Amino acid sequence: MVPPFPTMRLRRLRASQALRDLVQETSVSLNDLIYPIFVEEELDDFAPVESMPGIYRIPERKLAGTVKEIAAAGIKSIMTFGVSHHKDDHGGDTLREDGLLARMLKRAKDAAPELVVISDTCFCEYTTHGHCGVIHDDDVHNDETIENLGRQSVIAARAGADVIAPSAMMDGQIAAIRAALDGNGLTNTPVMAYSTKFASAFYGPFRAASGCDLKGDRKAYQMNPLNGREAIRESIADEAEGADMLMVKPAGPYLDVISQIRQRSLLPLAAYQVSGEYAMIKFAAQAGAIDEARVVRESLGAIKRAGADLILTYFAMDIARQGF
Ligand code: PBG
After folding, report:
1. 124 CB less than 6 Å from ligand 1?
2. For a substitution probing ligand 1, which of 203, 218, 277 has the most ligand atoms within 8 Å of its CB?
3. DSSP designation for 92
4. Is 309 exposed, middle or buried (0-12, 13-18, 19+ CB in 10 A)?
5. What integer pLDDT is reported at residue 207 of this predicted model?
6. What pairs with residue 36 in β-bridges?
7. What is the pLDDT averaged over residues 18-29?
8. pLDDT (tens digit, 9 = 90+) per residue, 38-73?
9. Are 234 and 196 in contact (CB under 8 A)?
């Protein structure tokens, strides 16, 4: 047993920077970060997202150049979101080989083949009602939606997506997507499940960024933010359906959930530092209340310390430019 104070002194290992570095338990590197981007069709110039300072909607026609810059900055992976001008009641544009989803994946992959291109796989940015699937009787129809998610995954993988990341929170979506991919010979395309996605108010700025006019809310499919055990059930279910990676979203307010899932699964675990988490840090820094660079690094480090292997963050580009 370690003898107590005054023999034991925890401050001994904090005495110099080099010593502190030696005993640091967690570190974050660019290898761990995924940069989410918004791509809009029929747009001429970069359009700033007012609620997310530093984030722009990228015009589809400037995507190739932007993706090259992202890769040159040292980013290893991006996640793509489309801002659609061709919405309908079921997100049909995503099921077309010449739709925005397929075009942006192909352009991104062609521009920087070394980047891991992850396709956010959902319908909300492509439906007129803003919900994540097909509506029947005022409810998102689960089984029809997962069939469509399977179709969208095949389109995305064929267009160039390296990873499929379904975020619709439908039951059985991982099994449906795995079956669709395998049935089309895409057996090597991994699925990163948004396994635990909460019905969070922290997505507010994203809805503006992605041009999603949601009528109502997503509480009938995304998880209640106050449930922890259910988060484990969702993760276990997605793992059993064949997910290759799991995810918790949002990240910062859910470190307990990240930590519990880390203890119960051997799969790589991602965490999504969402738009609201980004906006809070950016606006507080702009107001002079916090030191942005330090808070960003502390928040990402804490997400890793809790047990995440990968972090989706809008700060990835800042970090690639500035270093850790
Ligand atoms: C929906 C989707 C959302 C986010 C990622 N994918 C929004 C939602 O579920 O309402 C949120 C991302 C963020 O807030 O940064 N496919």
Report:
1. yes
2. 203
3. G
4. middle
5. 87
6. 79
7. 98
8. 999 999 999 999 999 999 999 999 999 999 999 999
9. yes
Q: What is the CA angle 246-249-255, rounded to 5?
A: 90
Q: C-alpha distances in angstroms, 34 versus 13, 63, 76?
A: 33, 17, 7
Q: Choose the residue to mutate in 274, 278, 313, 315 for probing ligand 1, maximizing ligand atoms within 8 Å of C-beta.
A: 274
pLDDT tens-digit map of 230-270: 999 999 999 999 999 999 999 999 999 999 999 999 999 99
Q: What's at 309, amino acid-wise? A: D
Q: Locate 192 and state its tokens.
A: 């990163």
Residue type, 64: A
- 211 dihedral zone (left: phi>0; alpha: psi -120 to 50; beta): left
Report all structural domains of the chain as residue ranges with CATH numbers, in order of start: 29-322 (3.20.20.70)
Identify the three-state secondary structure at position 18: helix
Which pLDDT value is given to residue 210?
A: 83
The DSSP letter of residue 89 is S
Alpha carbons 49 and 10: distance in angstroms, whole number: 46
